[in-house]
Amino acid sequence: MKSKRSARLIDMTRYLMENPHTLVPLTFFAERYGSAKSSISEDLTIVRQTFRDRGIGLLETIPGAAGGSKFIPYILKEEAEQFVGEIKQALNDQSRLLPGGYIYMADLLSRPYILRQIGRIIATQYLNHDIDAVMTVATKGIPIAQSIANLLNVPFVIARHDSRITDGSTISVNYVSGSNRRIEKMVLSKRSLPEESNVLIVDDFLRGGGSAAGLSDLVKEFNCNVVGISFFAEGVYNGERKISADQYTSIFKINTESDKISVSEGNYDNKVYGYLDNKEN
C-alpha cells in the first residue's frame, strides 16, 4: 500500500533511530512504502537535513547496488556542555558525600534521560571506530553500558566476579584492585566475545583503575582488541593507577579530598568533535 510522504517520513525516522549503525537498502524503504526509489531518496534527504540541523546524528549514504543509508547517532558539543553543566551542579551537592570519600550517584544513574545522554556523549567519542561489543563489570556501570550499546547497536557484555552454571565454559583473570590492593577475580563466558572483536570498556567510576585493567586483560584473553575505556566520572587518586591517563576518558572529575565535593569536567571532549566536524563538512 502506497504511503503519504508525511507517514513515510515519520515511520522512516522511527525505523532509522531504532536501528542505528545498520545499513538499510533503498529498496527496503521502497518496498515498505510502495514508493519509487526517487521519492525515497528525496525523503531521506529531508531526514538527513533534519537530523543534522537538530544535532540528532548523521545519516550516511553509501552509493552502489549494495549501498543504502545508515543512521549514526551523536550529540552536539553545545548540547553535551549544557547536559554536563546540569549534572555537574547536581553532583556538587555536598549531601552526596559518603564516608571514605565516596559520592552518592545512584539516583542520577537510574534516570533514563541521564543514561541516554551519557550514552550519546560516550558513543560520540567513538564515531570513527568499529566497535563490536561494549563491556563492563557487574556494578553500577551496567546501565551505562546498555545505553551505549543501544546507540552503537552492538551487544553489551558483563564480566562477573564469580561464574554461574548458565555461563558454560568461562575464562577468568585475577587482578589487583587499585583502591584496596586486594586480589580479585573476573569471569566471562567463552561465548560472550568472538575472537578479534573490537571492545569498548565502560564503567561508572574510576579510582585506582584495577577493574578497568582487569577488563582489559580479560579482553586480551579472548584475543580481542580494546578500542577505548570510558567512565562516567573519575576521582582524585594519589597512588599509581593501573591505567594511564591517555588510555581513558571521563565525563567528570570529582575531588573529595578535603571532605568537600568539587566537580569539574573530564577529558571526554578531547576525542569527539574534530572527527564530527570533518564528517559534517
Give structural notes.
The chain has 281 residues and is of the alpha/beta class. It has two domains: 5-73, Winged helix-like DNA-binding domain superfamily/Winged helix DNA-binding domain (Arc Repressor Mutant, subunit A); 77-280, 3-Layer(aba) Sandwich (Rossmann fold). Helix content is 36%, strand content 24%. It contains eight helices and ten strands. It has helices at residues 5-18, 26-33, 37-54, 77-91, 112-125, 141-152, 210-221, 273-280, and strands at 57-62, 68-73, 133-137, 156-159, 170-176, 183-189, 198-206, 225-235, 248-255, 262-265. A six-stranded mixed sheet has the order 4-3-7-8-9-10, with helices on both faces. It has a two-stranded antiparallel ribbon with strand order 1-2. Strands 5-6 form a two-stranded antiparallel sheet. Strand 5 (170-176) and strand 6 form a beta hairpin. Helix 1 crosses helix 3, helix 2 (26-33) packs across helix 3 (37-54) and helix 5 crosses helix 6 (141-152). The radius of gyration is 21 Å and the shape is globular. The mean pLDDT is 90.
How many beta-strand elements? Answer: 10
Strand content: 15-25%
Query: Can you identify the CATH class of the largest domain?
Result: Alpha Beta
Instruction: Determine the N-to-C terminus distance.
Output: 38 Å
Summarize model confidence as the mean pLDDT: 90
Supply Rg.
21 Å
Count of domain modules: 2
Placed side by side, the strands forming the largest sheet appear as 4-3-7-8-9-10
- Identify the CATH architecture of the largest domain: 3-Layer(aba) Sandwich
**How many alpha or pi helices?**
8
